[in-house]
Amino acid sequence: MSGRVRIVDVASLAGVSTATVSRALSAPETVGRATRDRVMEAVRATGYRVNGAARDLRQQRARSLLILAPNLANTFFSRIFSAIQEEASAAGLAVQISDSRIGREKLVSLGYDGRADGIVLLDGAIDPDVVNGWRLPMIQLCEWNEAYRAPRIGIDNAAAARMAVEHLADLCHRSVLHVSGPDGNVLAVTRREGFSDGVAARGIAGTTLAGDFTLEAGACAARRWAELRPRPTGVFCASDECALGFISECAALGFGVPDDVSVVGFDDIDFAHRFLPALTTIRQPREALGRAAAKALVNLLGLAQVADPGDPAIAPTIVVRSSTAPPPTDDSRVATITLD
Amino acid sequence: MSGRVRIVDVASLAGVSTATVSRALSAPETVGRATRDRVMEAVRATGYRVNGAARDLRQQRARSLLILAPNLANTFFSRIFSAIQEEASAAGLAVQISDSRIGREKLVSLGYDGRADGIVLLDGAIDPDVVNGWRLPMIQLCEWNEAYRAPRIGIDNAAAARMAVEHLADLCHRSVLHVSGPDGNVLAVTRREGFSDGVAARGIAGTTLAGDFTLEAGACAARRWAELRPRPTGVFCASDECALGFISECAALGFGVPDDVSVVGFDDIDFAHRFLPALTTIRQPREALGRAAAKALVNLLGLAQVADPGDPAIAPTIVVRSSTAPPPTDDSRVATITLD
DNA sequence: CTGAAAGCGCTTACAG
DNA sequence: CTGAAAGCGCTTACAG
């Protein structure tokens, strides 16, 4: 596990105590010049590197952040992880990741085993007793749970959903469908509320179908949408994956986007601008979110080098591309089918 | 960092030594029934949990795996990470991730600081001196470097590339383009070799354009392809991202896939089957790869609970979808432009 | 400026 | 079956 050579080896080679070696390495200015040179030479000669595990135990910290996410395979997290890791690394912290669905016992241990200084929580569905039982600084990111005693970072999901509705309404859609996230999920609930508010504010018709953010949920929703009478001409999906699944299945069903139906997504994942059609979506600035969470946590740990990071404006924006357009002017298709 | 209560607290509450508490927890059968009950009661009463950091130092291990990847934001890794984490968790190991481009000094430390028992390397471009300097069990996954002294897990990239060419040739394409990865990259080199071999074996024309696996590289390649005379009718991209970028840009340029040009990707990322058109691609079983790497590393650490995991066949396969078809029979478009 | 000693929180031979 | 003691590899008051 550790490299072979320990601090005592360096000390004896340099003819000093381990205390001096330790100081020469971590606070060189407190050691006499000649001694320091001797120690450094011994360090070089032996290839010594401090054993972080031992140092951490002694200093009662872990120099490590733990990221907890509901599904590590979800590509939505990639950019967030990379941003967190960058900030953590800049603050001298390692990053540990774990799926938050590993089972209660393992989960409890994670926050208790002295191997993390703080936690970034991307899951709002963990038992609050577990979360609040951890005695570690925590930040909730993107998802949240009112019951967790930890600050939150994320976008205004209701406002974001309203933006999607606004966009569709501005395009003159009078009937819109929302393919939401799963019932228990805070993001799903909040976006759904924003959708309802937006629809009410514009006086247009709104329907909701529960999905689960996935490609397949979107595809499934497209099949259900095709059976609706009249068919909503605008669709707001609670995730880009869902939107892409919806559009893809529409194509299979013979409907074109945006000719037959307009679709707006949520997240602005990397592929969104390269999809065919390029996806109109609500942009969630994932890198900024990850960075902000990491910085906030570093602050909580009292390790901040700089002053307050100055809240980077983490506001959702709508990016309009090619998957939305005014509703079809020719209602023949709908009319024909309705008359059958 | 640690929970408040330590093993001594439990010991004194139960009226036993810390040694007994330790045994009662980790080897209950070695402790008298009455004593054990008393200890367990004290554990319950205090809410004691062992401090993993202390245990690790004592036992000279870290109970942790380190994953090193060239860019954590790359969504290709998501499923690999999740598979590794699952296997690691099953073996009682935590997982630490780091970008492998964090700078030489930090990188060296990572393998030396006693906080990882083993490493999964997804980057073949790290200085071999750094890698071989680590005294930890390692596994190379997907990417590799001959100079690293560590076993490799991955698919046969040359064979995979040949499969792509075979498919195109079977469809009667006589001229194919390969959009490769960057020059220094092993995967790029190996796939390019497979491409060349395949093309030679089938006696068809092959051209190569260097890219870098990204969406934008694919888009850029599409622009270059459009200027080629004659235009290859089949294209093999070294990654799905690249292929999607290529197809997307083709659409912008007024070319249809597969009507004007057939495109095959590499990886079979999650979106591949939902893209429009659904992408024909070489499937790289990322979950199996991650799992195999984690298992191999666990074996190397001597922690395997089960016998040999039995090599799960990690063979690439081609999955044929809608982005490939026979070349256009009508050569008018090419002819017309050529005549200009 | 430097060293002897204690201690971070555990586990594990070694005795009994 | 249980305990006293050493020790994992460091750092850090405390003296001098």
UniProtKB/TrEMBL annotation, chains A, B:
Transmembrane segments: none annotated. It holds the Pfam family Peripla_BP_3. InterPro entries: HTH_LacI, LacI/GalR-like_sensor, Lambda_DNA-bd_dom_sf, Peripla_BP_I. Residues 5-59 form the HTH lacI-type domain. One of its GO terms (molecular function) is transcription cis-regulatory region binding. Residues 321-340 are annotated as: Disordered. Keywords: DNA-binding, Transcription, Transcription regulation. Coiled coil: none annotated. This is LacI family transcriptional regulator.
